[in-house]
Amino acid sequence: MQLNQIKDKGHYKVLKMDESQHCISRLMDMGLLPGELIRVRHEAPLGDPISIEFRDCHVSIRLKDAAFLEVDHLTQSK
Amino acid sequence: MNNGLSTIALIGNPNTGKTSLFNALTGQKQRVGNYPGVTVEKKSGLWKLNQSESVTVIDLPGTYSLSAQTIDERITVDVLSGNIPDLSPSLMVIVIDAENLQRNLFLASQASELGLPIVIALNCWDIAERKGIQIDSKLLEKRLGVPVVPTVANQAKGIESLASAVKTALNNQSIMVRPKWPEPVQKAIETLKEDLSQIDEASQALSNGEVQRLIFDASSAVTERIKGDKLEISGAINKAKETIHKGGFHPNAVESIIRFRFLKPILADIIARQATLKKASHSESIDQLLLHRFWGLVIFVGMMYFVFQSVYSWSGPLMQLIEGGIAQVQSVAASALEATPMLQSLIVDGILSGVGAFVIFLPQILVLFLFISLLEETGYMARAAFLMDKLFQWCGLNGKSFVPLLSSYACAIPGILATRTINDKKIRIITIMIAPLMSCSARLPIYILMIGIFVEPTYGPAISGITLFFMHFIGVLVAAPAAYLLNKCIQRKTISTPFVMELPRYRVPNLKSIYERIYESGYAFITSAGTLIFAFTIIIWALFYFPRPAALETEIRNQNTVELFEEANLQAKIDSAYLEQSYGGQLGKTLQPIFNSSGYDWKITVAVIASFPAREVIIATLGILYSLGGEMDENSRDLRASLKNATWEDGKRKGMPVLNIAVAFSIMIFFALCMQCGATVAIIAQELNWLWAIGSFVTLSFIAWIASILTYQSINFFL
């Protein structure tokens, strides 16, 4: 599913990224690549943007940009 | 700049303490300017490596990547590849956050391809150590092939070792290890270089790093250096991208994938985390509260209220002190110069009020920047932008515009300065353009005066309150569509940055860098905008002082015998007569037809023109025009009575009252929208350029004029 459609916060695995998008190149430069695990941490009061964490890096992305990330929900092992 | 010294470029990700390091290296010996042709701040300074040797250090903008999506990244590539005249660094110091090695080393890896020797400053060493993160810097140094120096920039630790490492690296020309590119990428680089040198022979000199930027970046700064047919050039680049595509890689993604894959083994066993450390960091638990959907918002509103109140009212005592001080000096000067009236007026009403006109902004600027640097240093500013972003998305702005726009409600000057926290150039321009529409505190007197005369007596305090609120809101109603349109217009020319914003770890603010930010903003304001505001004030003073024939005074004194008029009344009458026949007064009479449809007579027109350098001047000018003297304020009974009873002197409306509720609203709307503030024009010129400054002045004045006509005509129509 796409990252803008997820219902719960928590851990996800990035399956695919649309490399042709500016915002995706930016995330890739920061070290977010396909296969990486991310954690969706916060949602802004108006529902957009959301904040995600990967590799010790906490970033805010807008939902329209999150649509270019395909993710898979991981069941928490805790 | 080129004083025979080597130049060293300082680069690094945002939030790595790069600026602290720059300050620690150069101390107070800094110079701030702009890069040729663009308004990207260029900071340089002198760094004494030892007793005998110094180098010039350039602080490049903080960036995650060289991928040319922002103007900052383009400048960084241009500087590092020696393409800015008089600025070719012979070494780069890359600042790396010890807590975030991998991401920071990505930039280092990109930069290494541009061919310069490198020294790595492993910054925030202390925080990492405290968190139980141990980094084997010696092993990292061995694997990267360049010196790696642990530093704590905000305590100036590790600076000496950094200096000696720089000297060694300059001697040894230490180059960082580079990834081995897969076959298709190598092939693409080689063929592109060949193809380009056939278009422009000079391209042979391009380094591999520069050719990579051409291939990997959507709009590389390097493209502009190649001379020749644009289509041919982009054709060659597309061919190279196609080669990579056919090889099974995406040209936009291959760089990140290969570099991070390359960095992984380099970083293996470098970092040891102590197992005893609690997993959730402090930052994370703070975020649980500050980014909470409800409590986060409550705290945000509280914090913004606090900031706004401090700028709006707590800098008041300081401003009164300045005002009082200047008034004191003015009265001393006035009595000392009584014998020479022109000199007296020049010094008292021209020069001294000119100085007062910009010094008065200092308290607000300093107070706001205290809070802004606190918000930025702690890491909260990014959270504020996160919380507010949605509100701004539709008109092309982002959450970072919130604090500058809120500050503009106190005063547009500190508000516009605060847009320096917005790193996207386009969004910064739009925010600056709409900031003057936020109803600043200087508009309050005219609202109070007009509402006090025409709304409160008839409609009562409740409606008056609503009117006052509406006046503060009307600017936003114009600003929102204006931002939307500006966004559409600038879109094509400027590259917009995707809003992927790091939410950095919370940090304890460093007092020294807060002090430096405050000092810097105050100093920049006084030296550049201050002088302009001063010049404006002098010009307007002259406009309303000259010509000054002595005969006029004698005539009035002869007409009115002393028995009838007290001296003070007589003086007020004389001042009023001089103002009427001054160049400014004549200009007002000439321009009055323009404001005819807005319902203004010549006196209001003169007052409107006189308040272009500073809108609060209208009260004093009206005071003089109605022969009440210049020391009126918005609550003065005499002024209210005079305005209420003023009638048209000639024309078809002769004898009818000038001011009624329609004119009152027309004036308020005009003042709400018009850029009657020389200081704002000057600060826009300082922060952007004169084209934007004059453009926004003309546009806002025009909008205000149209709006004042619409207001007057529609109220007259309906009432």
Structure summarized in a few sentences:
The complex is a heterodimer of chains A (78) and B (719). By secondary structure, chain A is α+β, with helices and mostly antiparallel strands.
SSE topology sketch:
The complex is a heterodimer of chains A (78) and B (719).
Chain A (H helix, E strand, L loop, with lengths): L9 E8 L4 H8 L7 E7 L6 E5 L2 E5 L1 H4 L2 E5 L5
Antiparallel strand pairs in A: 1-2, 1-5, 2-3, 3-4
Chain B lengths: L6 E6 L5 H9 L3 E5 L6 E8 L5 E6 L11 H10 L10 E7 L3 H12 L5 E6 L1 H6 L2 E3 L1 H8 L3 E3 L8 H14 L10 H17 L8 H9 L13 H17 L7 H14 L3 E3 L8 H9 L4 H20 L1 H21 L4 H19 L2 H17 L1 H14 L8 H7 L3 H7 L6 H10 L9 H47 L10 E2 L8 H35 L4 H10 L7 H15 L1 H9 L10 H9 L6 H9 L11 H9 L15 H13 L4 H10 L2 H29 L1
Parallel strand pairs in B: 1-4, 1-5, 5-6, 6-8
Antiparallel strand pairs in B: 2-3, 3-4, 7-9
Helix pairs in contact in B: 3-10, 7-8, 7-9, 12-15, 13-14, 14-21, 15-18, 15-21, 17-18, 18-29, 19-20, 20-27, 20-28, 21-29, 22-23, 24-25, 25-26, 28-30, 29-30
Q: What would you say this structure looks like, in words?
A:
- The complex is a heterodimer of chains A (78) and B (719).
- Chain A is built from 2 helices and 5 strands; from the N terminus they run βαβββαβ.
- Chain A is of the alpha+beta class.
- Chain A has one domain (3-73): Ferrous iron transport protein A (FeoA) (SH3 type barrels, Roll).
- Chain A has a 5-stranded antiparallel β-sheet.
- In chain A, strand 3 and strand 4 form a beta hairpin.
- Chain B is of the alpha/beta class.
- Among the domains of chain B are: 7-172, 3-Layer(aba) Sandwich (Rossmann fold); 183-271, Helix Hairpins, CATH 1.10.287; 550-718, no CATH class.
- Chain B is built from 30 helices and 10 strands.
- In chain B, helix 12 (295-314) runs antiparallel to helix 15, helix 17 (402-408) packs antiparallel against helix 18 (412-418) and helix 28 (661-673) runs antiparallel to helix 30 (690-718).
- Chain B is elongated, with a radius of gyration of 31 Å.
- The interface between A and B is large, with 34 and 41 residues.
